[in-house]
User: Fold this.
Amino acid sequence: MKILYYISSHGFGHAARAGQVIRELIKDHTVYIKSMAPKWLLQQVIGCEPLLFPRQYDTGCLQLTNMDVDIDGTIKRYLEQSENNNSCINEEISFISDHKINVIASDIASFPFVVAKKASLPSVFIGNFTWKGIYQLYLKNDSHPVIQELTEQYGMADQSLITPMAMDMPELNNRKKINLIARRGKNIRDELNKKFNIPKENKLVFFYAGNLGAGNVRSGLIGDIPDHTFISFYPIDSPPANYIYLENGSYPHHDVMSSSDLAMIKPGYGMISEALVNKVQIIYPPREDFAEYFAFKKEFEISGGSLLIEREDFEKGNWQKSLSQIEDKKYNKNYSSNGAEECKKIIERF
Assistant:
């Protein structure tokens, strides 16, 4: 089969998730990717050079900070993207014809389903939320043209594969629940200890503030936390001796997660799913500006291995109290990570 996979360019989580599905598909099929996701990330997840065509089809949310959304700017940018999409639909149809595409998958843009319908091809939604659900929180008006357009477009998907931690998505048809699409890592703690002189007795904490970096963190507060070493793919100013910065791509993300004792992270599907399948306890701040957060919070209450921290404490590095409290939070649920294999089998039925 020849599959065209559209991947949202909002953040890294969609590329990390879709990349795992593509890794399974390319064992037997050809997959073309359309996304603005970083090539290095897709290559790392997929395990080989991706057939990537850089193009954007959704805009996600315009972030003011890691936690705050510019609502007016988000809707304005969506409308601009919608106009661009409509103007390029014939170009998409030509691509499909030239590459003899058999099926279209999307995580999680809605426009690809319009393309699939016009090309008379089957289409698959893969994800845990839709932009319709996210924007609905901001617009609070089901009759708003943006909500109406997104509802119509998502309704064109032939099959909807829904991972855990999902929002309610009545706009999708033929919904089927699948397991987490997540990577189990290997423990490289000994390697990290040796390279970065991490004391063996220290707790290793994976830290992620968001794609916009960790600029507000006060390094002095972190430096005063005993018996803990913090490791992150984002730098901070004047890092203390117990803060390790890794360049993106230097180590597999899931291996670092698996090697950590704790994850102190802004809640997002990619980070949370890796923590859950690797049974790494989670400390997280509230993210009530993003509707997906409430699905995460519900799952946290079920899993038992997480702790809420005040946003100000999270952003500034005032972590010592939470680090002591997380000791009592143990997982009471095991998570399967074979969602990518499930996606492959279902897509192959087309």
About this structure: Residues 71-87 form the longest helix (17 residues). The chain has a mean pLDDT of 95. Residues 162 and 273 are 14 Å apart (CA to CA). The first strand starts at residue 2 and ends at 7.
